[in-house]
Predict the structure of Cytochrome P450.
Amino acid sequence: LKPSKPLPPGPRPLPIVGNIFNVPIDKSWFAFSDWQKKYGDLLSFHILGRRFIVINSAELAIDILDKKGAIYSDRPRLTMAGDLAGWKDTLILLGYGETLRKYRRYFHRLIGSRALMQNFHPVEERLTYRFLQDILKNPNDLSTHIRKTADSIILSISYGYDVQGDHDPWVKMADNLLSQFSEMTVAGAYLVDFLPFLKHVPEWVPGASFQKTAKEYKATLYQAVDGLHQFVKDQMAAGIAPFSFVSSLLGEANLSGNDEHAIKWSAAAMYSAGAETTVSALYSFFLAMTLHPETQKAAQAEIDAVIGSDRLPTLADRAALPYVEALSKEVMRWHTVAPLSIPHASTKDDIHNGYLIPKGSYVLVNIWGILHNKQNYSEPDLFKPERFLGDHPELDPRTVAFGYGRRICPGMHLADASIFITCVTTLAVFNVTKSVENGVEIVPTLEGLAGAISHPAPFKCSITPRSPEAEALIHEIPAH
Ligand code: HEM
């Protein structure tokens, strides 16, 4: 293709540095939504010659990332995190090709649909009931309990590993890994990402301390990935491995060494991509309930009518609870967990709607923008589960929040189950209200923090059992 077509519009660049001063480092999704008003749904800009394309509508995301998936499914190459610190082998950063498709097939076979997730319903339920007990014991430590629960669910489903207490060594190691990863991927954190030839500079050269850091981080990554994998193999050898992603795949006949490597690295992606994201979504659920007592009451009325008050809800009750279902959709929309998705990279020049999208562009989807666009949602800033009920429901946010095309989130059904079961069981037994300090009610606001995974800013709320019967139900949960 000759570059005869114009690039998608965007702010005017400066020579060499391009649009470096136009794009805010933090929460750039707001800027992209503003630019949309001026330039339309497809935008482009460059920073130091690197071309970025931003997609601002669901239709375009489908047309480009789904329908032209063959050329839009690569990932940007991260020199520090990917090449030097070893993360390039994880599913999230893996380039497009046969290995990626193999990893994704594993996800598909084990957790690729709501029906398959039923194999993991007992785990989801057991660990969420444990969460209710933790909250009852110590309602002020909400974020700690959420984190522990999300970690436990992922480690149990991926490795059959049962998290022990509040200071579990594997959780600690995995959390450490994640902070290393986010530290490395903050824009501009490492010069080597802009000047990749620097990766050949030896560690002892002044200024090359990133080599030492990368070595250290890579060691932590391998220790965790190899260690958890070995844990499952040891359990299988002893005949005590519970059903999990890894035990199920390793149990298949005629595995090659290559297959085992692929199983190991695809499982590693579950924790890296699944824990923080779930934490953010669950935390935003509690914020929404704090701010919207009327919504909470409507959901509780439905639960009381359908389930009664002498047992806890399960995932099997889902179809009978349309309001709670709508509420959990609204949780996915109202606060956007991954506001710009994960960038895709294009592998060929393409002309779309008359614009040139050059090979090697980084393609971002403004997920926050789509989920807060007035054309898709009435009063988008409000928390309104009703928008998904009735004869003309608004766009299902689960078709947006998990990304598009061949890199769409392979953990979406797991995330969806975790969110639903947490919402429904919490509402069945607790009231979430604004906390009161010195006689004054504290009214939090929704503020999504900066980051590839955006968490709601910390807030206070009060969580109390709905009734003595509800409290008794929590006590009756068998010890774990
Ligand atoms: C609320 C929870 C979650 C949200 C909002 C979310 C969102 C996303 C998004 C937007 C992407 C990028 C898709 C794209 O590139 O187009 C993604 C990728 C991914 N997610 Fe999730 N996710 C969530 C939970 C999970 C869970 C629980 C798991 C695993 C068990 C998981 C595993 C992954 C993996 C492995 C990728 C990388 C896929 C690839 O590069 O091919 N996610 N997720």
